[in-house]
Write a structure and sequence with these properties.
The structure is a homodimer of 364-residue chains. Chain A is built from 14 helices and 12 strands. Chain A is α/β, with parallel strands linked by helices. In chain A, the strands form 3 sheets. In chain A, strands 1-2-9-6-5-3-4 form a 7-stranded mixed sheet, sandwiched between helices. In chain A, strands 10-11-12 form a 3-stranded antiparallel sheet.
Chain lengths: 364, 364
């Protein structure tokens, strides 16, 4: 078992990585001083429940815990205020009090929704994340939790750090290949913003990762989380540095909103966004290789960087205007300056972005 | 103008009290470093809007600010996730970004809803409170914001401190007498939990306060806020001490939930609750005068302490079980031990509480 501490002062917490570590879940809860008198509510989805809900519930009950659970529909559309309302109903009916713990067993959607429920139920109860996707490595660091609004993604939320994260790489074996690819896109992003060596390692180990080689996977997830943990510990509430984690997300979020949250996977959307950011970099005079390395790496992982031509450019531009990264009337973009380094540019003209969106439809 | 600082480290903020101080609103915003580039969203309700919305908007626009506004229906039923959704729609359409400020112009309902919107919009933007009721003195200290759920009051929320509070006592002149009485009930509560001298002062000044004598009012609000500020600065997130502010609220919240949030005013409900807590105190062996002083003082302010007999006792008991103050299966009650002092008891039997609920229907 590998351990990474996300360093946030009194809100610091550990992430445990390993094959089969879910078997030790009751011990891990004990280590975090979650007493048996704390009621637990497991939130999971219809994809994850058949594989792991009974197992996790059983192990926790053996450990002396009282466990309630609820199963949501998979996909971004569950990240809604309606679902928050339903979770609160379940929590109240199960008798959850302030000492209770909400457990997110699943991917990013489950983590974001359950996390926001934990942040706001009784003005905040503890929560534990058990990611079962690759993408969720990203949302398991940094405490960003949220639900969506009809007009914008992740617009209603909080910063709420988990008590701990239990990352059992065995759970990844049941993922469809499309989600594996899309999840690795976010790992690639961590490399692109921070660590050229890690980018090169990813390039060499693409096939191992796609085949879910346990050792390669554990390394990639650990490194990805490490990059994010470094950034987040320096800027928990996204005042400045943390924004760099949004490479590819300005365009990416807009694409998700316009395509409908379940059409394009998050990793697929930000991959197109990263290609767009790389194009922007080149246009701003940074090295040409930024674009070629970014897109070739993504393609090696079987991820398309072409923007679906059926998505309307005007709608994409409008969605970007609602993005949280739009401040004081200027467009804010995370732009690579070399592989492993980015800057935040807040002077990007909407016209250039529109051009790039059009280009991405042709040649992404 | 009187000023009180709520001392919460880097989240400290001032409360300004005075007659007519709304006229200085743009200056006060400037003092808090709210720049003219920050968009403002004023949230108010249909009762307050006709009297103050145009004035406040005008003064802020004169000060160089861009101001959007939205008017909600008055009453607890607006504290819902549906209304949060609507506020977020307005905020997005008005182009509010992370540097924006949400301004709550109104009573506790407006403050709670707008405050939770500020806490969760883009994971947290600044907010300013302009209370226009007496009751709102209470919610303007301590940063508790929330919306209700069908099964429980204030169950979905956050701790989100305002940047400042502007308390113009002139705005209280348009309040109906029923709300004045109910608002003063919460001021009485501050006295009962902390300050016997203040209780005696309230007893001597009941008529002045009911007549909205500006000087008496400013003193009472300042003292009420001061008690709360002392308590909150020692325990921001309600780990222990802060619970004493809930005198009368265990029964009170249940009554509001059962009666329907708009039937009994909050101050009316907690007055019955305070009479109940005083009864409990006497039953636990504390001095008889706790009950007589409490109820006589409330009656002097024209506030009934009789529990409406149409409210079903079983439903009231069930609602208490959903209260946040119900922990580990025991009932938690704030119990006066003398006038100006309370303790938190977590060993109160449900049977006793049921008896008291029944008694309050007959003799409250």
């Amino acid at each position: 078992m590998k351990e990474l501490t996300v360093d946030l002062g009194e809100r610091s917490y550990p992430i445990y990585f390993g094959q089969g570590i879910l078997n030790d879940i009751a011990d891990l809860f004990g280590r975090q001083k979650i007493g048996a008198s704390s009621k637990l509510l497991i939130v999971t989805d219809e994809h994850v429940a058949p594989n792991y809900l009974a197992k996790v519930t059983g192990l926790l009950e053996q450990g002396g815990y009282t466990v309630a659970s609820t199963v949501i529909k998979p996909g971004e559309s569950s990240k809604s205020l309606e679902m928050l309302d339903q979770l609160v109903t379940v929590a109240l009916e199960a008798g959850l009090d302030r000492k209770s713990v909400i457990v997110a067993l699943g991917g990013g959607v489950v983590g974001d929704l359950a996390g926001f429920a934990a942040a706001s139920y009784m003005r905040g109860v503890r929560f534990v994340q058990i990611p079962t996707t690759i993408l969720a490595h990203d949302s398991s660091v940094g405490g960003k939790v949220a639900v969506n609004h009809r007009l914008a993604k992740n617009i209603i939320g909080a910063f709420h750090q988990p008590q701990m994260v239990i990352y059992d790489t065995e759970t990844l074996n049941t993922l469809p290949i499309r989600e594996i690819r899309a999840g690795l896109a976010e790992v690639i992003k961590e490399g692109l913003i921070w660590d050229r060596e890690f980018v090169e390692w990813l390039d060499r180990n693409a096939n191992k990762l796609l085949a879910l080689d346990p050792e390669a996977l554990q390394y990639a997830l650990y490194e990805g989380c490490k990059v994010k943990a470094i950034v987040v510990s320096k800027d928990e509430r996204e005042n400045d540095l943390r924004a760099i984690l949004n490479l590819g997300h300005t365009i990416g979020h807009a694409l998700e909103a316009v395509a409908g949250y379940n059409e394009l996977l998050h990793g697929e959307a930000i991959s197109i966004g990263m290609a767009g950011a790389a194009k922007l970099a080149v246009r701003l005079g940074y090295p040409e290789e930024i674009y070629t390395i970014t897109t070739e790496l993504l393609h090696k992982f079987g991820i398309s960087t072409r923007l679906p031509s059926n998505l309307d450019t005007d709608k994409i531009m409008a969605a970007m205007m609602h993005d949280k990264k739009f401040q004081d009337g200027k467009m804010v973009f995370i732009v690579p300056t070399e592989i492993g380094k980015v800057v935040v540019r807040n002077d990007v003209s909407a016209e250039w972005v529109r051009d790039i969106v059009e280009q991405l439809k042709r040649e992404g």
